[in-house]
């Protein structure tokens, strides 16, 4: 099943790491550590192989992909030996990257994106193309009357106003081109009612939002523990320090607020109440592509005895996110091949703010993911539509 993976933000750290990682796996130069879909419980014939993945994408910057990979290797994100071993493969992907359209109305830009997606699919004889948003976090979208109705949205995009935020414009173009869509960011993406209706009309699956790679991953394990042991969480406060492009983006208060809202949902929805405290995100340029999170939890046990715990998470966000991007592209492609449409709630395991998910517990999300892949591998859903 030849599958295109079209990355929005294709020259960024997460996208570059995803591309280099997939190329290295294809060449047998690295193992699949971190790729959930390569675990025995999930691996199977419904998923496209790494050798079947073809990469392309858009970005607003023009730094050559090989240069981005070299910079990430110098920063300790990627092994330098892999970058040195894959010059021809990286050059082939570079040929498939396009500048993000900026001219004309939003309808004009969407049409240009659709052309790029269609040309990419036909040029490589792909069965389908999955569009994955790994671009910078946006501020929350401002409400617009056209967000609720597909017909009104079509009309409004032809006008002079910026009706959709960039992530939603890409989602609109992906749906128009018949492509499943994955939002690995907390941006608005396909969450608007008009876009959800369009995806349902076209029979397309989609997944999101905001990849769960660090502090929130730990919260989704610990919060259910407190709930199941009937311990009262009094406060939960976290400080996130990060550098790199993501950190610079989140220095903007509006983008920061959107990210914090996504990170906080797990506690209220798992515990059934909101403990005191919150999450703070700070940009520390010196940290580069690495991030550190420190959390303090205070809780009460039997007879009101007060206790506390602390944890620190230090990791490389791109190295944590990239294998999940590959997992999501493979799973969403398989869902599309099986005839599934609408939000893929069973992929909540991968997201901080998952669409339609009944639980934030990582263990429960894992069980749902296992059952979902079992159905895909056993031929659940409809026949492959090609």
3D structure, described in words:
This is Myo-inositol-1-phosphate synthase. InterPro entries: Myo-inos-1-P_Synthase, Myo-inos-1-P_Synthase_GAPDH, NAD(P)-bd_dom_sf. Residues 214-318 form the Myo-inositol-1-phosphate synthase GAPDH-like domain. It holds the Pfam family Inos-1-P_synth. The chain has 386 residues and is α/β, with parallel strands linked by helices. It folds into two domains: 3-210 and 319-377, Rossmann fold; 215-317, Dihydrodipicolinate Reductase, domain 2. It is built from 13 helices and eleven strands. The protein has helices spanning 13-26, 65-74, 80-85, 87-94, 106-124, 150-157, 166-176, 193-202, 215-228, 244-250, 253-271, 317-337, 362-377; strands at 3-8, 53-59, 97-99, 128-133, 181-183, 205-208, 232-242, 279-283, 290-300, 306-316, 342-343. The longest helix has 21 residues, at 317-337. The chain is globular, with a radius of gyration of 21 Å. The model is unreliable at 381-386 (pLDDT under 50).
